[in-house]
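Hi D.,

Good news: the full-assembly prediction came through. Inputs first.
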Amino acid sequence: MENKSKRKTLMQVMMLCIFLLLAILISVSIGSANVSPWESLKIIIGCSEASEVYHTIIWKVRLPRILLSGLTGAGLALAGTTFQGLFQNPLADPHTLGVSSGAALGATIAIIFGKIPMMFPKMGQIGLFAFAGALLTTLLVYHIARAGGRVSAVHIVLAGTAISSMLSAAISILMIFNQAQVEKVYFWTLGSFSGASWSKAAFLLILVVLCGTGMLWHSRDLDALTVGEEAAASLGVDTIHTTKSLILIASLLVAGCVSVSGIIGFVGLLMPHILRILTGASHRKLLPFSAIGGAVFMILCDTCARIVASPAEIPVGAVTALLGGPYFIFLLYRNKKEVF
Amino acid sequence: MKKSINRLVAVFVAAMVITGLTACTGINVSKPDEQAGNVGAGETTVSYPMTITDSNGIEITIKEEPETIISAAPNVTEIIYALGVGDKVVARSDYCDYPKEVTEVESIGSIRTPDIERIVELTPDLVIASTHFSEENAVMLEKMDIPVLTLYEGENFDGSYALIQKMGMVLNCEKEAAELIEGMKAVVDEITLLVKEEERPSVYYVVSFGEYGDYTAGGNTFIGQMLEMAGGNNIASDIEGWAYNLESLLEADPDIIILSNQYDTKAEFESTGSYSELTAVKEGRVYEIDNNMLDRQGVRNAEGLKVLAKILHPEIFR
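Then the structure:
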């Protein structure tokens, strides 16, 4: 029996990985530039004679963008899964605790105050400030989670919502005084991978691997917490410590994702639900599956965003909502059994 | 040899055009019924009170020649000063920065959210606004007996001329307005002729890039048209609007790149990731321009066209 379910899981993992590879290959071969799918694959393998500019497009524009979107999808899905388990709330998503609003505020400040000596030019100035804003918000939320012995999940979520509102208000006020920058800020918050680069992808890869591992480490505890804090405590889980750690790890991951790509919704909310139908509620399976599922979904959405209105680009956040929402409703309808 | 003949022809044609313009009114603008009839050079048709339909379709009545004006748009400010009545401006928007003298004048805030109380307190004879000035604010000021004239014309040279002409009429500076327009037309015609036979380099105009998204001037935009008029081949001429993307830019690999001279745009563009791969960047053909000349509909558009032409065809302007 054990072997059979293990083999089934292995099959599912392999299927998902194949999907991921396919998604990458498809996305590499289509885009605004006039390079045929066959040619782009040849460029990747390295046996193409196309001109230099097409090599640049594939290697320096498309590939880093695909990888970045995949990693962002994985990161957001992981964070969403963690928050949903942690707060016993099926509507929780990466943006619940206000970390994204902190990132947006950081980005707004960067866009408005423009020229500050660039210390990390490769990261992009906006990304840097967004990350800083998200980190500060994470610390704030973490501090709230720490304060006083027994802080329940509900309190943390409420605090996060309040923080999120405060930060959004701060952004609005900044916008009133800097109307020339309104469009830039708006474009950033819609979410986009157009500023992708290898260094950003590398940065996010490290973050996803580190935080993902941390979450996996706590997967048993997450399973217990999903049932309820008291039940988890009676099972021997150090709920306070686990909650604080997981909040920190997940928020860090969200901070990284949002700072490179803006605020992209739906992935973190939907992926765990969709994959849970497939894998069941065990976080040891759910976390990696969510990650891969999130990566595939985001890559496909970004490719759509790139080509649907070519040469213009649609904000990827709009695509995730348009694609994810209906599909999720369809899944719910088909799988009427209780999954959460 | 060919160039000097072209130049001679250009000067000759320009002279003919100027002569032709002064001989009769070339410009047609919807004039209200109460006004005096047709005009010849030297006669004035302006009489107050004047009723004019502004660009929002609202009829504005101006009781007498405005002595105190509030300008709620940077392009309007430029036109007022160019018409020679800059001393009548008692307040301006935050964004009005040309000519330099206007920065001494008090500001009544941003265009979208002006300080209504202060505007009322200043009791101007007329407020002139452009796009972005909300109709609600205009109506509110109208209720307090302050006429608000919102003017914006089509995005092309004819639109610029129409705007200058209308303002000239409203401010009783028709002669100055006509002269400005003639001057602009002369420049435009000169440029058009000069670049007519020249080979057209491919060009890309940067509105924004990188993390802010790639935006440029499409074929149906004023700037897009100006690029073509200045003798360039806009690589984005096949798109409408402003949205573009990095792949298409890299693929087109334009000969010349033009961007704004503000905010260190050039330095950032040349050092950002994939943009440094562009041939124009590698060979030092990235040029800056004061984008206000192109963005603000009004008196500096012809000058902007000339700067574009100089960038695209430096050899003509030796």
